[in-house]
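Quick one, probably user error.
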């Protein structure tokens, strides 16, 4: 790795801390489930709402931060995300009513939605083309590190008084670290050039790409610089017209299927799943740490392979393999086809497959598929649909697992993955060589 790529790596690692906050905030709730359910006497549908209300905020955050990032820039927007994380984490922890927790989870979701588009957007714009997939995948690595840290936090805090309160408050720690670190990376050079700050943007771009790519990038950026002359309304009208409307449809579908593939149901509700095979609370939280570790390990595999094999191929491998594994997990709860002692191994393999394929590559494609002129707005729309799907699956899963058999629940998810495999095969283009 040369000096320029080392700088890109440093900037990308700092920006990806937004993804770490994203992962931490969505995972911390799983550890609170065994404690807040009896504390507030929650029914399955109430638990589904408390869990999923975060994603109401995510929907609005994803939409709002597309506009905020365009006006203020990527760096100030990421700083704002970290501040909202700190405040919401503290107030969730000191809440005395379930309505207060719901309110502050929605506020936290607003920042999660912002982080979901800002970190991959910034990293894609600052990275040279040949390592862009690897760098954007760092955001997913940060997300899974955040998930793992949340699981570890839950495990170690579970034995103290007021455990669920401290679990929520612990989110302020990584948020504060990100707030401090965010002052040490530059603004996106491409955003600066969009805004007419050519000299400043070029100066940063020179630090991240070699001379040949610099000339090519500047020519491309100037050819796309009609963006600054467009009204917001004009950009949105363009998004819903050819040739961009089909790209938007593809981005929405891959965003939605990342959420309804069943992986997030396993990540968020692992205690409920493993309770059905007789695990106590301590072992449920311990297996979550193992899930988080596998998630991280296989995300590292994705970082090594995404620029080598391309985006579409990895996504197809992931969707097909996950469909089979979900069927096997379902069968382990149905009769004597597969002994339940293998459930943990199947779940870990399923999460590993997701972490190496759908989880990181979805964000890479969404960051690459759109041209500069419509990128923030189109990414915002796709991300908003992602959070709508995440809200739906998080709300519905406790009800599904309570009203359907476990076999039926996982078979439904397996069928969705099979449908997704066909969609990827037929309609999704390879974006590896797209200009960003």
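Nope, works fine. Designed sequence:
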């Amino acid at each position: 790795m040369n000096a320029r790529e080392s700088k890109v790596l440093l900037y990308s690692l700092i920006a990806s801390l937004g993804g770490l906050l994203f992962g931490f905030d969505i995972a911390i709730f799983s550890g609170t489930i065994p404690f807040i359910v009896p504390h507030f006497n929650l029914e399955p549908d109430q638990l589904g709402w408390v869990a999923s209300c975060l994603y109401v905020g995510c929907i609005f955050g994803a939409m709002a931060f597309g506009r905020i990032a365009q006006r203020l820039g990527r760096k100030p927007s990421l700083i704002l995300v970290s501040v909202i994380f700190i405040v919401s984490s503290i107030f969730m922890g000191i809440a005395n009513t379930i309505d207060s927790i719901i309110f502050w989870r929605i506020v936290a979701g607003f920042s999660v939605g912002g982080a979901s588009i800002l970190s991959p957007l910034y990293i894609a714009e600052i990275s040279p083309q040949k390592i862009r997939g690897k760098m954007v995948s760092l955001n997913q690595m940060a997300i899974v590190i955040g998930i793992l840290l949340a699981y570890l936090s839950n495990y170690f805090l579970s034995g103290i008084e007021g455990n669920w309160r401290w679990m929520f408050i612990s989110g302020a720690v990584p948020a504060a670290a990100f707030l401090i670190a965010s002052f040490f990376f530059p603004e996106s050079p491409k955003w600066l050039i969009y805004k007419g700050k050519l000299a400043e943007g070029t100066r940063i771009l020179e630090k991240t790409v070699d001379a040949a790519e610099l000339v090519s990038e500047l020519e491309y950026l100037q050819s796309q610089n009609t963006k600054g002359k467009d009204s917001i309304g004009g950009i949105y009208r363009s998004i819903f017209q050819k040739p961009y409307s089909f790209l938007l449809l593809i981005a929405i579908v891959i965003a939605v299927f990342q959420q309804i593939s069943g992986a997030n149901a396993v990540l968020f509700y692992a205690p409920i799943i493993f309770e059905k095979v007789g695990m106590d609370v301590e072992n449920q939280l311990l297996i979550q740490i193992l899930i988080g570790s596998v998630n991280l390990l296989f995300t590292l595999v994705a970082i090594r392979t995404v620029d080598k094999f391309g985006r579409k191929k990895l996504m197809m491998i992931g969707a097909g393999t996950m469909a089979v594994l979900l069927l096997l997990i379902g069968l382990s709860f149905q009769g004597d086809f597969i002994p339940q002692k293998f459930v943990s191994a199947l779940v870990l393999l399923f999460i590993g497959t997701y972490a190496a394929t759908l989880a990181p590559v979805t964000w890479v494609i969404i960051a690459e598929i759109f041209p500069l002129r419509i990128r923030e707005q189109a990414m915002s729309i796709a991300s908003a649909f992602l959070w709508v799907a995440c809200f739906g699956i998080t709300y519905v899963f406790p009800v599904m697992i309570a009203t359907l058999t476990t076999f039926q629940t996982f078979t439904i998810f397996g069928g969705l993955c099979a449908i997704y495999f066909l969609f990827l095969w037929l309609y999704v283009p390879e974006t590896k060589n797209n200009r960003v």
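The mean pLDDT is 85.
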